[in-house]
Amino acid sequence: MKRPKTEKTAVQQRIDEASKPGLRAASRLLVLASLMWPVQAAAAAVLVDRWANGEVDGAFVAVAFFILAGFARAALDHRAGGILFRTADAVIAVERHTLLSREARRATQIVSSAELAALVSQKLPMLVPYLTRFKPAMARVRIVPFLLLLIVFWFSWIAGLILLVAGPLIPVFMALIGIAAREASNRQMVEIGDMNRLLMDRLSALADIRLLDATSRAEDDFATRAEGLRARTMAVLRVAFLSSTVLELFSAIGVAMVAVYVGFSLLGEIPFGAWDSGLTLAEGVFLLLIAPEFFQPLRDMAAAWHDRAGALSVLDEMSRLESTTGRQIPGEGDKAAVLTGAAVVNTRKVQVMRGDQAVDLPDLTLHPGEAVALTGKSGAGKTSCLMALAGLIPVENGEINVAGVALSDETADAWRTRVAFIPQLVHLPDVTLRGFIDPDETGVDPTKALNAAQASHVVAALPDGLETRLGETGAGVSGGEARRLLLARAIYRGSEVIFADEPTADLDADTTAKLVEMLRGLANRGAIVLVATHDPDVIGQMDRSISVEVMA
Ligand SMILES: Nc1ncnc2c1ncn2[C@@H]1O[C@H](COP(=O)(O)OP(=O)(O)OP(=O)(O)O)[C@@H](O)[C@H]1O
């Protein structure tokens, strides 16, 4: 009865499918390359035989065969290697893109960004040795040893029998070791993710750690984690070394036994084993050269065995992530057909989910040219409302209409091109300020927009002005300055709709007044300006206000 195979996950099936043509082509070339060795072995055997008999006839032909087959083997290996690496790179590029675009669209993140970074940058590349070493080694194991066994049996049933007994022991032991390898790799993968999460967490809290005088505790945490990772990595290496040792042992015993048989047979001590009168010198040399090659595909497979275990752990993690469904940000995060309607915004009985909490949004209609304040108690749902209107969180119930169409997966991308969203906490990418304000590289001077957003002095204070790199590794700017830079970008790009979340928080009265004047100016020029705020002065200067109420 056939044993049921372990179900392949969707990720595994997709990767198998995508890598199949490349792997198939490369495996054919590799099998062909392996079969060059019997040609070389035959040429070497003829050469030794002629030399022992003092004949030179045909020696040059044998040498030529040996060299030509060697070149053919190297060329085939080289070509196969190229195909394999190109295939693996392409598969990983697609998987990385799929993974990042899916996780970027999640409304609620299910893994930390540190774990995701570890998966994308450290774990995904572990599929390369799986695709370039393990898979082709498996393909060769299925063909080459059997063909070589046939050849060996043709000359001697004893040599054939030795290989037949020693060969299968290797896969049996590898399968046993494989279980341990899989578990060790799983534990190592978890540890890599945990280490990255701890690193990100502690780095983002460096100032707090110093303030709380907890530096040595943080160091101890790291030391413990690093020790854990070291132990897990050593466990993987132990399994890898153990598998290599087992394999080397069996292949050495197999080759030695063939050598002993050939030696004694040539000395006439073992008169049986060959099909007729006994082995000739050429046949003996040929068998001696073939025996190690019989084990070579098995050795390659064993050397790549822990690559398989590592890759399967990565595939498991990818499958778990892929099978966890959840709410998604609407749209594809891609370019989309333009929405032609006037930028009127309208909501009806909209409810959004924030974590497990349902947040009800007020029914509202916004027209171009309006400056509106969004008010409400802290936690009432002002930020949620702005995000929903900008198409940054999905709608659970009700409907949002924008530019004459329902805000949906199909329309969200196009809508967002018309919207500028200014959050409370701005994440600045690691690009120059010029690149940040002008991502499409239009080359138009951003000075006017920066002046309008009260941000010109921010630029003046930066070491390289507009060419200063921002973001994590660049020059820092304050929260209020970052929001003004984002406003400058909205002005520069001519955004028709501006959703600003407490844009005047942390600003002095003078800057607040100028900023509000600027926002009013944008509305006067036809933009929709919706500002979430607690500031009564700001509320007073808007055309009207809409209140977000906490539902009972
Ligand atoms: N990422 C999140 N995950 C889970 N719950 C959230 C999340 N963001 C907000 N919430 C919850 O949703 C509710 C609305 O939050 P929201 O930030 O929209 O309120 P807000 O009116 O903007 O508050 P504030 O004036 O303090 O900024 C709050 O109860 C909040 O705890």
UniProtKB/TrEMBL annotation:
<feature type="transmembrane region" description="Helical">
    <location>
        <begin position="59"/>
        <end position="76"/>
    </location>
</feature>
<feature type="transmembrane region" description="Helical">
    <location>
        <begin position="161"/>
        <end position="181"/>
    </location>
</feature>
<feature type="transmembrane region" description="Helical">
    <location>
        <begin position="137"/>
        <end position="155"/>
    </location>
</feature>
<keyword id="KW-1133">Transmembrane helix</keyword>
<dbReference type="Pfam" id="PF00005">
    <property type="entry name" value="ABC_tran"/>
</dbReference>
<protein>
    <submittedName>
        <fullName>ATP-binding/permease protein CydD</fullName>
    </submittedName>
</protein>
<keyword id="KW-0472">Membrane</keyword>
<dbReference type="InterPro" id="IPR039421">
    <property type="entry name" value="Type_1_exporter"/>
</dbReference>
<dbReference type="Pfam" id="PF00664">
    <property type="entry name" value="ABC_membrane"/>
</dbReference>
<dbReference type="GO" id="GO:0140359">
    <property type="term" value="F:ABC-type transporter activity"/>
</dbReference>
<keyword id="KW-0547">Nucleotide-binding</keyword>
<dbReference type="InterPro" id="IPR017871">
    <property type="entry name" value="ABC_transporter-like_CS"/>
</dbReference>
<keyword id="KW-0812">Transmembrane</keyword>
<dbReference type="InterPro" id="IPR036640">
    <property type="entry name" value="ABC1_TM_sf"/>
</dbReference>
<dbReference type="GO" id="GO:0016887">
    <property type="term" value="F:ATP hydrolysis activity"/>
</dbReference>
<dbReference type="InterPro" id="IPR003439">
    <property type="entry name" value="ABC_transporter-like_ATP-bd"/>
</dbReference>
<dbReference type="InterPro" id="IPR003593">
    <property type="entry name" value="AAA+_ATPase"/>
</dbReference>
<feature type="domain" description="ABC transporter">
    <location>
        <begin position="342"/>
        <end position="552"/>
    </location>
</feature>
<dbReference type="GO" id="GO:0005524">
    <property type="term" value="F:ATP binding"/>
</dbReference>
<feature type="domain" description="ABC transmembrane type-1">
    <location>
        <begin position="143"/>
        <end position="310"/>
    </location>
</feature>
<dbReference type="InterPro" id="IPR027417">
    <property type="entry name" value="P-loop_NTPase"/>
</dbReference>
<feature type="transmembrane region" description="Helical">
    <location>
        <begin position="29"/>
        <end position="47"/>
    </location>
</feature>
<dbReference type="GO" id="GO:0005886">
    <property type="term" value="C:plasma membrane"/>
</dbReference>
<feature type="transmembrane region" description="Helical">
    <location>
        <begin position="239"/>
        <end position="264"/>
    </location>
</feature>
<keyword id="KW-0067">ATP-binding</keyword>
<dbReference type="GO" id="GO:0034040">
    <property type="term" value="F:ATPase-coupled lipid transmembrane transporter activity"/>
</dbReference>
<dbReference type="InterPro" id="IPR011527">
    <property type="entry name" value="ABC1_TM_dom"/>
</dbReference>
